[in-house]
Specification:
The protein is an alpha/beta fold. It folds into two domains: 114 residues, Rossmann fold (3-Layer(aba) Sandwich); 182 residues, 3-Layer(aba) Sandwich (Rossmann fold), CATH 3.40.50. Helix content is 32%, strand content 14%. The longest helix is centred in the C-terminal third of the chain and has 19 residues.
Length: 316
């Protein structure tokens, strides 16, 4: 069996890949442009990708292709409909990065909510030493206990964030497509109106695209903190940037973007240096432990496929 990994650099060079060697020949490319990928998959039976788009054209070029494995939970970069038509299996890896994304969500939210970086900068700049005052309490920050944390998307990550928020005394409200027992589920407009913190953990689809837009930002409290750990296009990024510029939201944290990396024309370039903005480079999923889990599950997916079993198939 020939396995081709097309964008190893996006996985981190310390991700252990030797678990794949037992399947046969493994060809690894650090980067692949769309054009390079077309040439590199011509005799691959399995391809592994993270961010690279797997188009109908790419699969048509891979005459021996049987299985596409995405090094991720989301698979919106794969033309699953075309794969289904061509009898090519597609497997994702659900749940592997929950702990890592929760860590980034909580870290980003608390840093913004407590103005941690602003207080840190005040000391590091020397202003604290020269102020003559033993402490500083500006900008004002508030207890999380008693506040409302709105969670958009209530899968493994959303539920884990909810547990942390509740442990810190926050009321948690949830927006999900199909309301469930065991959570205070509300519609998206009510969540926007009542939340002091909103964190996003939903998949990107036609319903969730630009879910957080200008009209919903207008519903929010002026002190709201928004953290996006879902997909960039779940928010209207222009509307978010404008809201920060006009002080309609208090703070914004984001690890995901509609274009990655975003270029100079992206609206977040206008706000990236703002004290109340934290932007990270789509890193929340990628703790070492998460990446190790992911490649091990990919290996299990390949074993299941070879054995004729259905595991983590998204084409079914």
């Amino acid at each position: 069996m020939k396995i081709v990994l097309l964008d190893r650099a996006t996985l981190g060079y310390d991700t252990p890949l030797s678990v794949l060697d037992k399947f046969g020949e493994v060809i690894i490319y650090d980067h692949s442009t769309p054009e390079e990928a077309l040439a590199r998959v011509h005799d691959a039976e399995v391809i592994i990708i993270n961010k690279l788009k797997v188009t109908r054209q790419l699969m048509e070029k891979a005459a021996k292709l049987k299985l596409v494995c995405v090094f991720a939970t989301g698979y919106d970069n794969i033309d699953v409909a075309a794969a289904r038509e061509m009898s090519i299996a597609v497997c994702n890896v659900p749940g592997y990065s929950t702990d890592s994304v929760v860590l980034f969500t909580i870290s980003t939210t608390l840093a913004l909510y407590s103005h941690l970086f602003e207080y840190n900068s005040f000391v590091k700049s020397g202003e604290y030493s020269s102020s003559g005052a033993p402490n500083r309490l500006v900008p004002v920050y508030h207890d999380l206990s008693g506040k409302t944390w709105g969670i958009v998307g209530y899968g493994n990550i959303g539920k884990a964030v909810a547990r942390v928020a509740e442990a810190m005394g926050a009321r948690v409200i949830v927006y999900k497509r199909n309301p469930c027992n065991g959570a205070e589920c509300v519609d998206i407009d009510k969540l926007c109106m009542e939340s002091d913190i909103i964190s996003l953990h939903c998949p990107l689809n036609e319903e969730s695209k630009h879910l957080i837009n200008k009209s919903r930002i207008d519903l929010m409290k002026p002190g709201v903190v928004i953290v996006n750990e879902a997909r960039g296009a779940v928010t209207d990024e222009e509307a978010i940037a404008t809201a920060i510029e006009e002080n309609k939201i208090a703070a914004f944290g984001c690890d995901v973007y509609s274009t990655e990396p975003f270029d100079k024309s992206h609206p977040f370039n206008r706000i990236k240096d703002s004290k109340n903005v934290i932007l990270t480079p789509h890193a929340a999923w990628g703790s070492y432990e998460s990446r190790e889990r992911c490649i091990n599950i990919i290996a299990q997916n390949i074993v299941a496929f070879i054995s004729g079993k259905i595991q983590n198939r998204v084409d079914k």
